[in-house]
Amino acid sequence: MTELLQREPLLKSVVFLRILIGWHFLYEGVIKLFNPDWTAFGYLATAQGPFRSLFIALTGEGTIGWVDTLNTITLIFIGITLILGIFEKWGAIAGMVLLLMYYFAHPPFPWLEQRNVEGSYWFVNKNLIELAALWVLYQIPTSSYFGLNYLLKREHKTIKTPQS
């Protein structure tokens, strides 16, 4: 694995993937933050599949505000960690959990009518694909190659000087 990570073209590709996915999450979070009319209510209220009752329970008057806020904060957190290359593994984990929830709120199972989703899929949709990409980012962290972690480690190394 170490030999694989020393291949610079691969690292550059994974960094590019990390930044693109980070941008997607950050954009989604910022759009929701600045849109006072946005709510997850419609998405959750039309949930299907085995966890339908759980998602519908999240639409309650006392919970939907929390759900909206946590969704927005989590999207922004994931975006920032992936773009800046700091706490990259935490961002990847949070992203995978969030995408798994999105996936199971509207699972692309062929026996379900596809409602409130883009397109018609069989088992695999964009949420599952992005989740798989985050799994790759978790497996191949690149923040020590390009990102704030890299800058902080580099700065840390230059600060240490041998004392006479």
Automatic annotation (TrEMBL):
InterPro entries: DoxX
Chief site of localization: membrane
Cellular component aspect of the GO annotation: membrane
Matches recorded under Pfam families: DoxX
Membrane topology per record: Multi-pass membrane protein
Protein location: Membrane
Lineage top rank: taxon: Bacteria
Membrane-spanning intervals of the chain: 9-27, 64-86, 93-112, 132-152
Keyword terms of this UniProt record: Membrane, Transmembrane, Transmembrane helix
Protein name from the UniProt record: DoxX family membrane protein
Source species: Muriicola jejuensis
